[in-house]
Amino acid sequence: MSSYEADLGVVPPFDAELLRRQPASAPRYTSYPTAPQFNARFGEREFRACAERSNESGGPLSLYVHIPFCTSPCFYCGCNRIITRDAAAAEEYGRYVSRELAALAPLFDARRLIVQLHLGGGTPNFLERAAVAALVDEIARRFRLSGEPERDFSIELDPRFLPQGYVEALAELGFNRASLGVQDFDRAVQLAVNRVQSVEQTLETIEACRAAGFRSINVDLIYGLPRQTLRGFAQTLETLVAARPSRLAIYSYAHLPELFKAQRQIEAADLPDVETKLGLLKLAIETLAAAGYRYIGMDHFALPQDDLARAQASGGLHRNFMGYTTHAECTLLAAGVSAISHVAESYSQNFRDLRGWSAALDAGRLPIWRGLALDFDDVLRAEIIQELMCRGRIEIEAVERRHGIDFAQYFAESLRRLGPLVADELVTVDAERIRLTPRGRLLVRSVAMCFDRYLEPAPAAAEPHRRFSRAI
Q1: How confident is the model at residue 117 (pLDDT cuts 50, 70, 90)?
Q2: What digits encode the pLDDT tens for the residues 122-143?
Q3: Are residues 8 and 37 in the same domain?
Q4: Cis link prior to 33 (omega < 30° from 0)?
Q5: What pTM, to 2 d.p., does this model score?
Q6: φ, ψ for residue 260 (rounded to 5)?
Q7: What CATH number should be reported for the domain holding residue 296?
Q8: Any residues with CB less than 8 A from the CB of 356 and at least 6 apart, and which?
Q9: Where a domain ends, among 280, 302, 334?
Q10: Residue 430: which domain range?
Q11: What is the DSSP string of 336-348?
Q12: Using 50, 70 and 90 to split pLDDT, how confident is the model at 150?
């Protein structure tokens, strides 16, 4: 490992003035092209062709299953979810997921192993233990599940709704990683966002996962929430650092009430101003650095012994719709409402509404709503952005050799866009490579935007797209 690769895990310096000058919003680049580019011209026929091409190259599989149900709305949330307390709704949903898995499985070579499984939401633990067991059994019946210790079977958990023995049951089913939403322990903040969750509930869940042998535990926090203060957030960080979860994700709250109905319950006047929000980010970065967490990228931190930090150090870090992850070699399959697959050189998304998704399955079709077949330029730029996001650099000669291009000529406009970021010392550019500087790693989204041909106007503009979350 080079000194530069070792430095990638070092928490970047904080420069408030520099952060103020960045674009107000930016894609998170869990895919390139991003989801707004998907279209209805890509459907089941195109997906089947991509699955066939995927089998030619082979390799392991990653499976994501979306569980959309929540018992109550969190006002900050922009996820696709269904608010209900009806357990029967989950049972019916499970039957439809089984039908989707039965339709997907024959498209993929039966010898390909699922080495990564993730249940996301929504609130996956809305499902009762028996329902989760039935789902895992169905997946195992349709696909080959890896039995290797390196496999990554994860689930998102809401500590407020975990019955006794639930975590232990998950471990028996093979789950070894959990992600917990916390956001902030400050009572005023919790009331403002309609998510009251005690410290005790959270710490008990962390300890239960640890006692059950989970290899990794992630905690999500959000900065920029209504009524959030430096003092309250400091107490939240102090509590969690003492609990020592393997990973933390510190997300910036994106207030887009015109897109997300639940956010209309949040009073804009209660949101922290720009200076306070920057202060919250600074506090999180400095606290986690002092506690020994490595900086993975954007808003993710991990302890040095965690799989994510090891993947970063070895060059195996990857980014997809689940965020930063390992197992870069996997084909991503997805089932459930709104779920997105990445198969061969394509993306495909299921219907976002329960009625459209279930109606397609009732008609004997895969429930694909829209997608995108990637052309040469998409594949090339996706690789460039992935390299920036995960390895912090672009090796120019290697890109030229793999794709048969003259980098300076092909990316002339992107290099022009990089000019102001070079001047700000976010990135260095020479004949051999483009490399993020330590201060540029926190603003990698701004650098990646320079290579995004779908974004107009250029990244220097104040507001390129309100459909994306705030860059900081």
Answers
A1: very high
A2: 999 999 999 999 999 999 999 9
A3: no
A4: yes
A5: 0.93
A6: -120, 110
A7: 3.80.30.20
A8: 367, 369
A9: 334
A10: 1-31+375-472
A11: STT-EEE-SSEEE
A12: confident
